[in-house]
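Render this sequence as a predicted structure.
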Amino acid sequence: MDASPPVPRPAVLAAVGLGAAFALLAVVAASSEVILRGFDRPLTEALVDARSEGFTQVMRGVSFLGSRAVLIGMLIALTVWALATKECARAVLVVAGVFAAAVVLEYVFKAVVDRPRPEPVLQLALTRSPAFPSGHALSAAAFYGLLPVVLGARRVGHVAAWTVIGVIGFSRVYLGVHWLTDVAGGVLLGGAVVAGGILILRGHRLDPSRCPGGHPR
């Protein structure tokens, strides 16, 4: 019987480190939100003052890339392809599971932390649900962050994925629907979830000849 693949230590360290950083930020957001607001408000107000009609439309489009509807649509398409071609089916199911876990964690932490969003006068897309963590940032990180792992992308693919995640997060601050630390919380938790997904993929011993990301390094 083949030996089990070694546990990727960087993924373990990432899961623990990012999870701990998120937990610390969540505690501060829940207990001392006014401290974070003092840090967040100057950036949000500066972006509000710098808004332009053209750039606002671009940011709305970028934000849409991190919406639940777009991500679920892409996930469904990816799953259908994987099941139809029998390529990476198990890995894509792991992506689906990681994404579902991110959605559940979002609702749990929003309810627990219950941080207010920026005032309606600052928002370009009025939203009243709790702010922390940013659902767009968390969901985008869970999906786009794990996708290049499954596809066996080179480093540039990972850089591109996390750049997209960062720009989506920035768009939420620009639109005034999240504070910067809400986005940071979403990215931290999303990164921890992605690291967990990498550990699951390693444990499943996916066939690299059928799925290039079966043995992520």
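Summary. The mean pLDDT is 86. The two ends are 22 Å apart (CA to CA).
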